[in-house]
Design brief:
With 399 residues, this protein is an alpha+beta fold. The protein is 56% helix and 18% strand. The strands form two sheets. A six-stranded mixed β-barrel has the order 2-3-8-5-7-6. The protein has a two-stranded antiparallel sheet with strand order 9-10. Helix 2 runs antiparallel to helix 13 (362-388) and helix 10 runs parallel beside helix 13 (362-388). The longest helix is centred in the last third of the chain and has 44 residues, at 259-302.
Length: 399
């Protein structure tokens, strides 16, 4: 009887379900998008390299305050000391970066020029597509050689061969000795659209890189630990070494971040955003429940004669209560099913159109459908009880 009654008022039933449909679809889509964003960030962090530690200049508090002129407290000698004196470390890649105009013939590109050493390749898990990478001899000789990212190679040389060609960086000639495999950007660092040169050459042959009385200043140092269990040991040893070298007695003028730390921060942020978005979307479920209650109250008033006749021929209060509760639950559950289908479709569309590997959360689907059914049951109680308590004589007279 409940199903026939709802089918007889298709338009009203459909409009009543609309709030539940939107709420379910929103919750499932936002949870899927949040999980996709989380997986995307985790994949980006994994590309930074295995067992990686980042030694970053400036205290953590200074960077959290968003200082414009961050202190350059790390120098090349610090990286060399870590490589020589920290046994838990297998590779050390110092980096310094400046933006320069790179030109080949009449083609120009304003890109990041990254000064580093031979360990960069293994520490950061890059591969050379052709040619070779920077060597220790290149750093010793201040060699004017360059390794190009794949995107920059296409911009400067298009279909022409790049190896052995000469390009100009800030007006200084460099020979192209290698091309990196395409890896994609991570955390705002796009080495595919950058040129890598020996750090010593960058400091001695190109203007713009700051120096201090202690040596060549670095943007950060990337360190590869021996294995994952050794990361904590490496961090402890590096901290002690740099505190001794910098004669620190109070707050460190550097801090060390690991992949695990970055993953934890990223997961916390994306988890909180997903929860917040899901909570906002779930308000639609509440609105949909209120809509169900309003329509059911109107339905009780419209069907007063029906209720009176049913009670006059023997229907109990429990029968009337059950019918109206079933109607409310059917509306909410049907809205939940339709909303789930739309939400899943939205997640698949996001996965196809964005870089996020958006996933379908079974838990979110079960929760959304269960909550929508519960909302229908909850908000259907008031009109159902009102219908069940109608006096049959009064109902027939009012009809």
């Amino acid at each position: 009887m409940a199903a026939k009654t709802l089918a007889a008022n298709r338009l009203r039933s459909s409009l009543t379900m609309l709030g539940i449909i939107i709420g379910n679809a929103s919750v499932i889509a936002t949870v899927g998008l949040g999980q996709g964003a989380q997986r995307f960030i985790n994949a980006q962090l994994e590309t930074l390299g295995p067992n990686v530690l980042f030694v970053i200049p400036g205290s953590r508090e200074t960077r959290q305050l968003g200082a414009l002129n961050l202190p350059r407290t790390l120098v090349l000698a610090d990286a060399q000391a870590i490589s020589e004196q920290v046994p838990a470390v297998t590779g050390v890649a110092p980096e310094a970066s400046t933006r320069k105009l790179v030109s080949v013939g009449n083609r120009n590109a304003n890109v990041n020029v990254v000064g580093t050493n031979s360990d960069f390749l293994t520490v950061r898990s890059f591969e050379v597509a052709s040619g070779r990478f920077l060597s220790d001899l290149d750093l010793t000789r201040n060699a004017q050689v360059a390794v190009l990212g794949s995107t920059l190679r296409e911009r400067l040389f298009e279909d022409q061969p790049a190896l052995g060609q000469t390009l100009r960086i800030g007006g200084v000639s460099f020979d192209v000795i290698g091309i990196l495999e395409k890896k994609g950007s991570n955390l705002g660092l796009d080495y595919d659209d950058a040129v890598l040169i020996p750090l010593t050459t960058q400091a001695n042959r190109l203007p713009g890189l700051e120096r201090s009385p202690y040596g060549i200043q670095l943007a950060f140092i990337t360190v590869s630990a021996r294995d994952r269990p050794s990361m904590a040991t490496a961090q402890f040893q590096i901290t002690n070494l740099l505190r001794l070298r910098h004669a620190i007695t109070d707050e460190d003028d550097f801090y060390i971040s690991s992949q695990d730390t970055l993953l934890s921060i990223a997961n916390t942020i994306t988890g909180a955003l997903t929860l917040m978005l899901a909570a906002i979307a779930s308000i639609s479920l509440l609105v949909g429940g209120i809509g169900i209650m309003n329509i059911m109250l109107v339905s009780v008033r419209e069907r007063t004669q029906e209720i009176g006749l049913r009670k006059a021929i023997g229907a109990t209060q429990a029968d009337i209560l059950s019918q109206f509760l079933i109607e409310a639950t059917i509306l909410a559950a049907a809205g939940g099913v339709v909303g789930t289908a739309l939400g899943v479709g939205g997640v698949l569309l996001l996965a196809a159109l964005t870089p996020f590997d958006a996933g379908i959360s079974v838990a979110a689907i079960l929760l959304a459908v269960g909550v929508s059914g519960g909302i229908g049951l909850f908000f259907g109680v008031v009109p159902a009880r009102q219908a069940a308590r109608l006096d049959p004589i009064v109902a027939l007279r009012s009809a």
